[in-house]
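Quick sanity check, HIT family protein:
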Amino acid sequence: MATIFSRIVAGEIPCYKVAEDDKFFAFLDINPMVKGHTLVIPKQEVDYIFDLSDNDLAAMQVFAKKVALAIGKAFPCKKVGQAVLGLEVPHAHIHLIPMQSEADMLFSNPKLKLSPDEFTEIASKISAAM
C-alpha cells in the first residue's frame, strides 16, 4: 500500500506542488504552521529519513536548500527552519518553515486555515522564486 505522499507524487492525490526533480518532490503542507510551510520528500518510499543512502540523504538536503532559498525570497523571514519528525506519515520528509521567531516552529501551534486560492498563490510565489 503506497503512502499518501507516494500517491501525491503519482498524481493520485492533488497537492500544491512547489518543485520536483527526478528524485525529490516539494509541496505545500495542507496544515501549515505559517504561509510557505513546505514539505520535501524523496520519491523513493522510505519511512525513516536516516534509512536513505548517504548520497540520497545529501541530495535531499541540497534539493531542500534550493526550495528553502526560494521560500525565503517568496516569504521574507529571518530564516527558513527545517524540521524532521517523521511520526505522522510513514514516508521520510523535511518540513521547511519560514520563521520570524523560534515560536513559528512549534508544531503544537494552531495551524492556518487557507483557501485553495491562497495555497495556489503561495505555491506559485515559491515556484517563481526557484
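Posting the structure with no commentary besides this: The beta strands are 17-20, 24-28, 38-42, 79-83, 94-99.
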